[in-house]
Specification:
It is a single chain. The protein is about 75% helix and about 10% strand. It has 22 helices and seven strands. Strands 1, 2, 3, 4, 5, 6 and 7 form a seven-stranded mixed beta sheet that branches. Strand 6 and strand 7 form a beta hairpin. The chain is extended, with a radius of gyration of 31 Å. The chain starts with a helix and ends in a 7-residue tail after the last strand.
Length: about 600
Amino acid sequence: MLLDSAQFYQRNDPDKSLQKINEALALARKTRYHHGENLAFIALGEYHFILGNYAKAVEQATKILAKATDEADTLAMALAHRLLGWVNTLGIKQYNTALAHQLKAREYFIKLNDSRNISANCGNLSWIYAITGDNLAEAHRLANEGIRLADSLKDYLLLSYNHNSKGLIYKAQNNYDSALYHFGISNQAAQQANEKAVFAYNKQLMGETALKAGWHKQALTWFTEAATVASTLKLREVIKESHKGLAEAYAALDNPAKAYFHLTRYNMLKDSLLNVEIAQRALLANHQLENERQLKQIATLKLEAQRAQREQLIFSIAFAIVLVLMGTILILSLRNNYYRKQANRELQRKNMLIEEQNQKLAQAAALRDKLFSVISHDLRSPLVSLSGLLSMLQKGQITEVEFRMMTPKVNQLLLGTSETLENLLKWGHTQLGLLTFLPVSIDMHELVNLVFRLYIEIAAHKKIELVNQTDPQLYITADRNVAELILRNLIHNAIKFSNPGGTVFVCSGQNNDECYFEVRDKGAGIPENLMQQLATANPVNKPGTLGEKGTGLGLRLCAELLERHGGRLECANHPEGGAAFRVWFKTATTPETAG
């Protein structure tokens, strides 16, 4: 009863759900009810899954699966496999692994003749097949079976799940009318079950279906409804995909302003969710390494225990017949020494493997610590400052006139925070090998003007003039996002380290098949003792001329991106004063002819 109550609160009041789970767990332990304890642990794993803590959910499910297997608790094993299937489907999108877990769960549910869970499992399996586009005939069969069972049980929640899967299958087959029909039935059932999450997801899928069919105005309606409901439930994935659909629909209806608005919201959510995904994958990798290490240690201990038992038996027998089998004892002793040497060599080999795994684990932990350090300090501090400023305005502690006077500083804080987040995401991508490069031909003069517009207010605040001296006929071959990110970092640094009233120049040049752009300021330059530390593994984090702060990741990120991009970064003090940073790329011809 406590677990049923916890399940009811899962989506509406997670804290209340956790309270009920802990009460159920305490009661099961007090009464030594092992099956109830297993079910409580499964509910705890589902709680972590719903909150998006996938690494914790996997850890919980893995532990309870081992415990339930030892206790031959079939239902708990099935539920643990189902939870692992959910995490791999909706959390980290490892569909092959998810399918294996859901098929194993189905095997146990059928063994238990559990109609309700079989129906739910049909929805899980057909959803995976529909998403991957594999075995759609089996997907239809499973969805039909799930609908039949749910209808016999009069369970509207299960009906909503299976009709959703049925619609998703038809959507994959481009059968738009059938897809919309089943999404509609799923929504009716979801409303009967008061399941708003399925309703929001259906509306998103209906919008995608309408978009594919070319019904752009109808798509706008459904995407808007999906985003509205998802916002109240904090379903960030549905909100993100709804903004993407709205952007595409408005673009098709020739409304670029609204299309750009929703595309911006989509990109913000996509970057935020990607950051969460990177952190979750790092935690899962740590968990997997730790789990593998423990399994190997257990296997080693079992092997050693078995060997000790064999040795004890051999010595016992030898002792009993020592007077008549002296020769046999000698042979057994020699053979035992041989086995010991082999065991020692094997133990040394395993120790080396464990040491390698520990090094990988330390590298993953270092990456995690660096990410959390920057997030907790360099991103949190400016946001806390901005929050305090807005609170003062709301409480009337400062006037609107005073607030407007602070607008350049606020804008500088927001732009600095945005740049730090962008650098952090790109740096995390480079460390995890997720960054891809798409070289195109880029008009250098136009790109410099674009970046200048981003920093007009910050430059004006310090009365710094921005001068574009690049050749309008110069084109470079580079990934546009990489080139823009590097240029933003260098120009922002030049403004930060320029004295008020100074000038920031961007010029260009060409040497055979290479060309460069150079960002130069008229600040104090770079001290000789710091020149060698720039763009290294431990970059210098020096404040600007007005005390502007930074994370120190900018130049390091530029250097790493250029190294992987085939370019290079040079820095020096300019003869006329100030620092000069020169970035080299391959030369392109024109946007039409460059590869």
